[in-house]
Amino acid sequence: MPIDYFDNVNVLYNTISRLLALKYLRLSLNERYSNEPLSITKNHYSLIEHFVIDSNCSIDHLKVCLSYLPQLRRLSCKKLLESYYIETYLEHFILSNITQLSFQSENISFDQIKLFIRNLSHQLKMFRFSTEFDIRYLNANRWQELIRTHMPYLRIFDIELQTEYYNSKDDFPISINQFMPPFLVFKAMAFYI
Fold first, then answer.
1. Residues with Cβ within 8 Å of residue 187, at least 6 apart in sequence
2. Domain count of the chain?
3. φ, ψ for residue 18 (rounded to 5)?
4. Is 115 helix (H, G, I), strand (E, B) or coil?
5. Quick check: helix, strand or coil at residue 153?
6. Enclosing domain of residue 15
7. Distance separating alpha carbons of residues 95 and 122, to the nearest angstrom
8. What gap in Å lies between CA 120 and CA 112, rounded to an integer?
9. Which sign does the torsion angle of CA 80, 65, 20, 6 carry?
10. Residue-wise pLDDT tens digits, 25-52
């Protein structure tokens, strides 16, 4: 259902939350709306189970969007942006039903991804993450700790790092090798890098 124009994104989310038969939503917002402040809802809830965001979305904006979607099981955000607010802002929500999470990002820190994942109810079974230009995501110890403490049911871990350069030819293979056993053995899960 294409919608051409909304002055206020809050109106859009309130309208969507009233569509009780809707189970799947793919949202593409015009760039000028992506930074507009949103209000967390406590009154309107949607039954949407699968939500795809095709436009730029800060992690703060995403948190507010999710307050409208308590039944959400699958979330995909194709242009996730870093938060510019205090990170504790994200600590006051729990998503209890999400089992599949997919993020693509160019500039979000591992700490913000970790903070977001901590707010899931440990039901996550599939996690896909794609980013550009940040080799720091190849720290297997950080991922292993996050998976062990906050994703105990994870079965698919898919990370894609797109980089054209790195500091040393030797650093990259060593980083990749960190993800080989025993990293995989501790979870017996599918792993893609």
1. 147, 154, 157
2. 1
3. -90, -5
4. helix
5. coil
6. 9-192
7. 9
8. 13
9. negative
10. 898 876 554 445 556 656 657 889 999 9
Q: What is the DSSP string of 5-27?
A: --S-HHHHHHHHHT-TT--EEEE
Asked if residue 4 is part of any domain, the answer here is no
Sheet holding 156-162, edge to edge: 24-27, 50-58, 74-81, 100-105, 126-132, 156-162, 190-192
33 is a domain residue: yes
Tell me the one-letter amino acid at 47: L
Neighbours of 177 (CB within 10 A): 11
Angle at which helix 140-150 crosses helix 110-118, to 10 degrees, equals 10
* Integer angstrom CA distances of residue 189 from 127, 144, 152, 174: 11, 12, 11, 21
Report if residue 159 sits inside a domain. Answer: yes
- Give a yes or no: residue 66 inside a domain: yes
Per-residue model confidence as pLDDT tens digits over 119-158? 877 889 999 999 876 677 878 888 889 998 999 899 888 8
CA pseudo-torsion sign 138, 140, 145, 150 = positive
Q: Which residue has the tokens 């006051």?
A: 92
Query: Nearest-CA neighbor of 48 among 27, 33, 78?
Result: 27
CB 44 within 8 A of CB 14: yes
What pLDDT digit, counting tens, does each position of 50-67 carry? Answer: 999 988 888 887 887 787
